[in-house]
Amino acid sequence: MIDVSQLADKFFDDMADNSQKAKSYLNDAFEALTSDLDDTIAATPYETVYKEDRIKLKYYESKVSNKKKRKTPLLIVYALINRETMLDLQPGRSVIEKFLDDGIDVYMLEWGYPSFKDKYLTIEDHIEGYIDNVVDFVRNRENTEKVNLMGICMGGTFCTIYSSFHPEKVKNLVLTVTPSNFDTNEGLLHVWMKQIDVDKIVDGFGNIPGDIMNFGFLLLNPARLIIDKYKGFLNNIDNKVFLENFVRMEKWIYDSPDFPGETFREFIKKMYQQNLLIKNELTIGGKKVDLSKVTMPVLNIYAQFDHLVPPSAADKLTSVVGSKDTEDLCLETGHIGIYVSSKFQKKFAPKISQWLLERDKPEAKKKTTAKSKNSKKQSSSEAA
Amino acid sequence: MNEKNQNSEEKSNSKSSEMFENWVSLSGQFFDDINKLWNTGSKEPMQFRSFEEAMEQINSTWQLSLKTWQSFTESLQNPDESILSEEALEERRKALEKIMEAMAESFKAFQEKSMEQAETMKNSFEDMDFKKIDKEMLKKWQSFYENDLSKIFGMPQVGLGREYQKKIADALDKFNLFNASAIEFLYFFYLPMEKTFILMQKDMEKMVAEGRMPENSEEYYKMWLKKLESHYMSMFHSNEYVSVMAKTLENMAQFKSARDSVLEDVVSSMPVPTKSEIDEMYQEIAELKRVVKRLEKEKRKEEENTE
Hints:
The complex is a heterodimer.
Chain A (H helix, E strand, L loop, with lengths): L3 H31 L12 E6 L2 E6 L13 E4 L10 E3 L2 E2 H7 L4 E5 L12 H20 L4 E6 L1 H12 L4 E7 L11 H8 L2 H8 L4 H10 L2 H14 L4 H14 L7 H13 L9 E2 L2 E2 L9 E6 L7 H4 L11 E6 L5 H4 L1 H4 L2 H10 L27
Helix pairs in contact in A: 2-14, 3-4, 5-10, 6-10
Chain B lengths: L2 H36 L12 H27 L1 H4 L3 H42 L7 H20 L7 H49 L6 H20 L2 H30 L6 H32 L1
Helix pairs in contact in B: 1-2, 1-4, 4-5, 5-6, 6-7, 6-8
């Protein structure tokens, strides 16, 4: 049995001690909060080389010597949820930066902010429209037959579908935390999405508001994401570097574009509710998605503690695609940690870079008269 | 009074009497119909496929009755025809009594029905303990709203402003439904908190009894957070939670649709296009763009092939 009076003494001693600490903590916190915080995200310079409707294509040029430069450019397709800035969060914590250092020229598709007029865009419009146009643009600009394609989360699902439609344009396919098997009860999203009446939701909202989606993501783990995260923030509020990193993540998380309504309806029904992709029964815009046509090398990276795309949602794809050169890699981190945690900066991007290097044979030149990189560019420069 | 005049008076009396009786009968029929409609316990309850059909029937009886009344009052304006015999007056008195009786019965039935409804509501309220809000109470409230209160907003609207009133009533109904499910959802959200605090208290009692206590508040917090996370996770996987969450989301979307519909009526009176009109245009533009882009692509391919 514990001596309660002893416990009470300890409690009051702690209180006295903490109140002394609180005084200096509050001073430091005030100083840190009112100082000039560097919370810039997506600081790597880029050029906007293509624009279509709301989307734009960012071009990051590697400055390494020609000897070290890779032959095939990499096109990154992000999800329609949140923004691609996560891949370039800050110097030292940037997937883009690592690729550039390794001599990879990077193109990154920015989906922009869907407005009411984008409500009627379907998955087909995104894949056979925007992605295909961007791929063709890069092929022409780089004067190459094929590009390397890298998909992030839902962007990976889009890239898989695209690769089955146009295997002749994709040299290597890199999928990261990409859902392909939706019939799992491991991830809460998979459980929840099966029961929602998506028609009522899309008919009511049109585009799905980013705020509602963010609220849904917070609900996936309220103890950690609503309570513990901000307790950690308060504990470290006097630490300027911590504060800057924290605000960067907050900026990224809450910069949430709306989700185009019809695409949402189609994605939830065909993927989460019917799981058609992995069953090889999916049709997009009347065209069958045949996974046996995904014949290029495939690298599939997912995260063990991913609460959005659990391993069981990501690890089946390589066994059903047509390619003989496939690799699965499960990293011991979460859905976002894979891109931004300091620990995985040394594992994630270097692995992709190395894997691509091993498959970076020169590609045949494209037989077109299209404008190449050295000829006139299609849109204005927008270097950051 | 000569024979001719007497004949004329009899003829006139007979005509107005016939008209009056006709009107009395129709009016009686009107109130009787209403009585039957309200009073489902009546010997001959009216059988209609819908409330609209019932209203149509009642309305046509009422219109006929009004026309007859009009003819009757016109005939009274003619002094020659307004002279009634005592016998005829007696007939009219009886007829009026009949009307009054039917009216009284109708109002009584209506009042009884209202009282019955009020009694049901009273019972439902008594069943609910507002001081102790729990899952059962919230379910009772939802079912009470859906089965009783919601019907009030669903009552058919009539007249010139029918369409607008209907939309407003619908928006109010959807707002209430959304609120009811949002409260239930928030209650669910609070449950793991309550459960965790109770469990923490028990664990701490046990630890005190065993003579071991966490060293500092951070350890208490970690213990609490771990339990809370685990309770949330098990709740989030439950069918009950998922269905409440899905219902809340659906009700929110349906309320938004209903509210937008009311706002569109307001906007339509101003010189600006409504959301539906713009939506329609966006849809057309999206389809046109799809066609144009496909044609552009085909043309580009053809050009590439010829080169």
